[in-house]
């Protein structure tokens, strides 16, 4: 029982990171129906920006987190303007291939700039272990990851449901042409969506650096794919679904690792993807919609 609870705590920490990245996937898909495979690399850029702010500038945790989020939100908007906007009326496969190209561009550009070796993330936060009962412990880093994630999720819910730009995002997601006829600036709304999603991915990158103490230019590939699995698991295009999917995937992975099958933690994520696509392709929170003919 102690092993189960310990892995549940570990899974919630890992799932928080997947959920933050998955939110970007699901928001962009909800607005422009694009699976942005470069999203995992924005998470990597966010981790390096956090590293730069902490190790080079000597900034504390929160200003470093904010710097990474602001710069990555601008990066997300630039990518959208240069790479995706010209293809908005093109077939989806064109935009998908472009997203893969942007992903490779970001990975190898970063490799050129910061070199390919793994870097140790500076210990900006003191790691304190709190004993709950028996051998079950929770660390201060895990608590900080959970608190930051929940705060960002609540902020996102507020923006989406209580602000004008959030209403515009929901309108564009529902019917882009009707939203345009009602006077909503669709281009600005899409750019804002990319900015928010990229900021959340950057936050996840900094949190991963603090949690695992290591970053590298290819660190966005696997978490990016798993966050995509989490978004599909919850129902891609549905914000609560992405949050739930991220936490579920993190808990499942931690359970697999905790019970001595750590080699299977990556395959399990993709087995979940296959099962959900066969059993419930719309995801846990999605509804199957029949196309009229």
UniProtKB/TrEMBL annotation:
It is a multi-pass membrane protein. GO terms for molecular function: L-isoleucine transmembrane transporter activity; L-leucine transmembrane transporter activity; L-phenylalanine transmembrane transporter activity; L-valine transmembrane transporter activity. Keywords: Amino-acid transport, Cell inner membrane, Cell membrane, Membrane, Transmembrane, Transmembrane helix, Transport. One of its GO terms (biological process) is D-alanine transmembrane transport. Pfam families: BPD_transp_2. It is found in: Cell membrane. It comes from the Bacteria. GO terms for cellular component: plasma membrane. The chain crosses the membrane at residues 12-35, 95-114, 143-160, 192-215, 227-256, 268-286. Belongs to the binding-protein-dependent transport system permease family. LivHM subfamily. This is Branched-chain amino acid ABC transporter permease. It comes from Desulforamulus ferrireducens. The lineage of its organism: Bacteria, Bacillati, Bacillota, Clostridia, Eubacteriales.
């Amino acid at each position: 029982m102690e092993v189960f609870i310990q892995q549940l705590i570990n899974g919630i920490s890992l799932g928080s990171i997947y959920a933050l990245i998955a939110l970007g996937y699901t928001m962009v898909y909800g607005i422009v129906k694009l699976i942005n495979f470069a999203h995992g690399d924005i998470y990597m850029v966010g981790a390096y920006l956090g590293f730069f702010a902490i190790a080079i500038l000597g900034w504390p945790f929160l200003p470093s987190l904010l710097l990474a989020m602001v710069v990555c939100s601008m990066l997300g908007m630039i990518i959208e303007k240069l790479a995706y906007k010209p293809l908005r009326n093109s077939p989806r496969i064109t935009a998908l291939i472009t997203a893969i190209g942007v992903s490779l561009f970001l990975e190898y550009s970063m490799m050129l700039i910061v070199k390919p070796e793994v870097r140790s993330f500076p210990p900006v936060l003191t790691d304190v272990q709190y004993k709950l009962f028996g051998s079950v412990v929770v660390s201060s880093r895990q608590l900080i990851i959970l608190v930051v994630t929940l705060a960002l999720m609540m902020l996102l819910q507020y923006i989406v449901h209580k602000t004008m730009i959030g209403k515009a995002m929901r309108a564009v997601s529902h019917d882009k042409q009707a939203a345009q006829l009602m006077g909503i600036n669709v281009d600005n709304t899409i750019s804002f969506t990319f900015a928010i999603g990229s900021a959340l991915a950057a936050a996840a990158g900094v949190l991963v650096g603090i949690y695992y103490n290591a970053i590298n230019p290819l660190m966005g590939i696997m978490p990016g794919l798993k966050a995509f699995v989490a978004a599909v698991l919850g129902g891609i295009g549905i914000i609560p679904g992405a949050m739930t999917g991220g936490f579920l995937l993190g808990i499942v992975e931690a359970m697999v690792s905790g019970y001595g099958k750590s080699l299977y933690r990556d395959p399990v994520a993709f087995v979940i993807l296959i099962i959900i696509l066969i059993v419930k392709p719309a995801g846990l929170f999605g509804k199957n919609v029949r196309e009229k003919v």
